[in-house]
């Protein structure tokens, strides 16, 4: 799963209002706001993902965690395994290849077996693959929209809490 760090500019008012609050209240404000923004990016990523079997497209989603900091993750969910041609396909294990690609691999000791379009292929060499960069493209396409959504939602929640 690709990891992005992004600082939203133009949120100085919200930031200053958040600074005076306890950490638990900050999380109560930021978690739903980041969730809305992450769903926008996940929807854009679904439209950009390359479709082979459709499993990765179905499995893409967003999730927000708030242990120390509030963090939004976008990637493949578990539970979307499917048996194709006798082999279990799991988008969680292959999403990073579809996004970032891979380098060429040569197996010296034994041939490598894997599935391509529903059939087994045995080879001692795996070609390099340039990924489609669907996560980073989705993030870059929706960056401004996400910033406004997060800012508006956080400001609404701060007003709701009377801060």
Distance between the termini: 36 Å
Class based on secondary structure composition and strand pairing: alpha+beta
Radius of gyration: 20 Å
Tell me the helix content.
40-55%
Characteristics:
163 residues, two-stranded antiparallel sheet, alpha+beta
Helix-strand blueprint:
Elements: H1 12-19, H2 23-48, H3 55-59, E1 60-66, E2 70-76, E3 82-84, E4 87-89, H4 91-100, E5 101-102, E6 105-106, E7 112-116, E8 119-123, E9 125-126, E10 129-130, H5 134-160
Antiparallel strand pairs: 1-2, 3-4, 5-10, 6-9, 7-8
Helix pairs in contact: 2-5
Overview of this structure, please?
With 163 residues, this protein is an alpha+beta fold. It has one domain. The protein contains five helices and ten strands, in the order H-H-H-E-E-E-E-H-E-E-E-E-E-E-H. The protein has helices spanning 12-19, 23-48, 55-59, 91-100, 134-160; strands at residues 60-66, 70-76, 82-84, 87-89, 101-102, 105-106, 112-116, 119-123, 125-126, 129-130. Strands 1-2 form a two-stranded antiparallel ribbon. The protein has a two-stranded antiparallel sheet with strand order 3-4. It has a two-stranded antiparallel sheet with strand order 5-10. Strand 3 (82-84) and strand 4 form a beta hairpin. The chain is elongated and about 65 Å long. It starts with 11 loop residues before the first helix and ends with a helix.
């Amino acid at each position: 799963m690709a990891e992005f760090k992004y600082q939203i500019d133009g949120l100085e008012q919200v930031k200053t209002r958040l600074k005076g609050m306890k950490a638990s209240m900050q999380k109560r404000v930021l978690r739903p706001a980041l969730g809305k923004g992450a769903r926008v990016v996940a929807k854009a990523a679904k439209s950009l993902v390359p479709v082979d079997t459709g499993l990765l497209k179905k499995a893409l989603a967003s999730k927000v965690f708030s242990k120390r900091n509030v963090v939004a993750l976008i990637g493949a969910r578990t539970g979307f395994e499917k048996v194709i041609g006798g082999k279990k396909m799991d988008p969680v294990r292959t999403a990073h290849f579809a996004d970032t690609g891979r380098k060429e691999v040569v197996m010296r000791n034994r041939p490598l077996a894997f599935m391509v379009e529903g059939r087994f292929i045995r080879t001692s060499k795996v070609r390099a693959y340039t990924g489609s960069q669907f996560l980073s493209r989705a993030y870059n396409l929706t960056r401004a929209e996400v910033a406004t959504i997060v800012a508006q939602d956080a400001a609404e929640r701060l007003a709701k809490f009377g801060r």
